Amino acid sequence: MKIYNPVKYRKPILSIYVILLGISLYFASTLKVHYLFENFFPKNDPVYINYVQFRNAFDIDDRAISVAIKADSGVFNPGFISRTTEVEKFINDIHGVEKTTSLNSLRIPIKTPLGWISTPVLSKNPNNLSSDSVRLVANKSVAGQFISTDGKFFAIQVYLKDSLSDKENRILVERIEAILDEESLEYKMAGFINTQVNYIRMLEAEVPFTSLLATLGLSIILFLLYRSPKQALLITSVVFTGLILFFGYLGMIGRPLSVTSTLFTTIMVFVGVSDLIHLQSYFQKYLVKGFSEADSIYKALSETWVNLFMTSATTAIGFLTFMSSSIPHIQTFGWDAAIGVLIAFVVVITLAPVLLFYFPPKGKVLQRLQQERRWDRFLFNLYKIGKNNHYLILILTGVILLVSIFSISQIQINQKLSSNFSDDARIKQDFDFFEEYFGGVRAFEATIVPKAGKKILDLEVLEGIEKLEKWLASRESLSTVMSPSFWVKSLNFSISAGKDGSFKLPDDKDRLSFVLMNDRSDNKRAFVNEEQNIGRFTARMQDIGRLKAEELNEEVITWIEDDENNIPFALNITGSAVLIDKNNSNITDEMFYNLGLAFIIVSILMALLFKSFGMVVISIIPNLIPLIAVGGFMGITGIPLNAATSLIFTIGFVIAIDDTIHFLTRFRNEMQSSANIELNLKNTMMYTGRAIVQTSLILFVGYGVMMFSSFSEIAYHAILVASTLALALLGDIFLLPVILRLAFKKRKT
Fold first, then answer.
1. What angle do CA 427, 432, 434 make, to 5 degrees?
2. Fold (CATH) for 58-197
3. Which among 118, 143, 460, 492 has most CB atoms closer than 10 A?
4. Span 1-30+227-371: which CATH code?
5. What is the pTM of this model?
């Protein structure tokens, strides 16, 4: 099939790219970073629907920020109390803050013979601070919420208005930080909004940094490989053009950047560089043979475009398999990655030939290409090693498979909320701090549904809730357990004027009715809905991981369903943490489906390309073994299987098989002119080996950039993909020729 001649249309092509780059740069400048919590969950999932209903029914704490301030001389020091009082006033004055609560501002309504009065929990008399400290540290509703468990940190709960935009949230968080910094206070912050703001900060720094570092690394390694600044700059320019067009596409469709956006740079770099190196390799071979620049470009493109299209198509289709995911975020990642691959392919077959024509290797560079034998010697030695160690390669492959299959069973799947961030990340440090001093940032949330004919505020139901509340409080991983029972006991305490022993449920229905009628607090909506048919349990929970959290949830449900406990309600465990756990479970389960789908689709494309079922099997084996080996590597090293690392199996497969396609296509062409298997394998290695090795080296640089990511899941992802491709390279260089020898051993030579 004839291919168009890009040299003939070089001027229109360059003009079009100038226009496209201008448009793309504009739209790329409009890119925004968002923490789209909703896009991580399937909208029709019953767990998600239940969470939305729960969130709408109660005043949950997604709009709250916890600020913990270190008290060097103790929380109950008059000077420290005075400083934190001033800080709280400043925070209250920030636009968007609805209210703040701390020991300084917390007041309890107390009913006295003279009427209701509001009593501060912390005495204004400095002489009483010592007695206050004993009383408040022993109070379970205070310790772990307003004071750290060791009494060294003072906490302010900042409640934000619902109508704030992402930009306003960020300004608010930055203003709180500025106030605390101006006061020279040592502090930590937690809460959904704070996490969102810091997550966006990390992404804003990470995406341009990784893009720039990947481009710089690419330029350096290209210069080392080609020893020509012009040739290195040419390839870098083509790849960078593809990146600009791709990010322009994201900006044009209004797609916000997320944590997976850091993967796009490496994907685009790999696909573009891989295609470019193969195209340039053929172009240089024809130049060395004496053809003109125009003829060399046309012959190189004619000989490689089918391979380039097939490798790009298999990679794009592999990413499109993510469209079958139940997670909206994964779906959009798969679609965008596929678009990025196609953009890289189009840029390579249109812009690259024109730039090669204008900037071909000349003079000393061309002379060096004509005389250079380093790569020929290196590739011939690789061929000889494979030929002379036929059985050793098979034995080593078998050993790797056995060890990997055994080690796969050791893979960790216990995902933690904080495991997405490196130890140096501010979010991770804040998570660890609140884990140690305030019982954790993970929330245990559940809805209480009374049995038929009963209401949440019926005394019988409240007594059952109190029983469960005490049982939950005895769990080591839970603290600050609150419920409708806790709220009613607080009311009873207020109406009893704070009398000792009055923090308890009313003794009878009449007393309960009296307590509820005299409610002067504004906390009811946090624990009971208007119809009194749904209640809320909430507690602070340590980040014990998905598996242990699921075990605890099952333990809670089992305890409730035990007839001996006589619990008059059902419990439905929910909350954002449960959603995240379910999401991670879904993604890892879908991994096998996506990988299987990628195998099937790639196999069909390979069958169309080679018109041979045997060649399909041959092409799959060298790329299947690395996936098994990487699974074993995860088990040995303790890298967990989670949302990000589960993607590497499909991504690694569809990228790694590109080199196999190039190798087998060249081998097939050699077989058409000769029946000598060894000669064909040697020629295939000499012709395609350089591009395959160089592509892999460049890929390692691209993924090496992400190994230093602040997102630990991205760093793990980079390590695993790089490992997959390293093993795939060894498979293409050593194992694939062995398989071809076995497959064609009956062919006469």
1. 95
2. Alpha-Beta Plaits (3.30.70)
3. 492
4. 1.20.1640.10
5. 0.77
